[in-house]
Amino acid sequence: MSVISRGFGARRRESDERLPPGQYLTGDFPVLSAGPTPRIPTESWEFVVVGRDGIRHTWTWEELHALPIETITTDIHCVTRWSKLGTQWRGVAVERLLDAVGDDAAFAEVFSYGGYTTNLSRDDLVGGRAWIALEFDGEPLAPEHGGPARLLVPHLYFWKSAKWVHGLNLREHDAPGFWEQNGYNMHGDPWKEERYW
């Protein structure tokens, strides 16, 4: 007589199919930061794109809000192995800002209030893949989650979604940011487990 487990051959749950390798599901939204939480008043906040020519292009809080704001429902994955499914954000597509600048640089250094940096390729910032997020779950983005605005790049590990985002330095060549200089992968694709060097 053979014993067959009732679960043998069963289909994976949808949540399992949406979890990259090595990740676990959480209902919380853990707060992880490399330093203190900056408090940036929206009256003095700005987003800056510095082209390869050195020219600064800036948007105030009001100017950013005057652009089309999209609703994004997406899964997010942290390199520390938690994943949160079906998160809802509202923000401005980064591609819209890059189009306004007219610089087709292959890479960008993302910089934040508080000094944090990370690197991204242009391909990871365009095509509906990255936003300046202003709201989470129907509320203004809380400072501990990167408010008043953070980068949202949900197809990569969440360290690439820089909190307290201030702008982009457009570059011809890639260069590591804060965590990348400290052993994290230069790209960060959770489906390939690009966690560390």
UniProtKB/TrEMBL annotation:
InterPro entries: OxRdtase_Mopterin-bd_dom, OxRdtase_Mopterin-bd_sf
Domain (Oxidoreductase molybdopterin-binding) ranges: 35-179
Domain of life per record: Bacteria
Disordered, as annotated region: 1-30
Protein name from the UniProt record: Molybdopterin-dependent oxidoreductase
Organism the protein comes from: Microbacterium galbinum
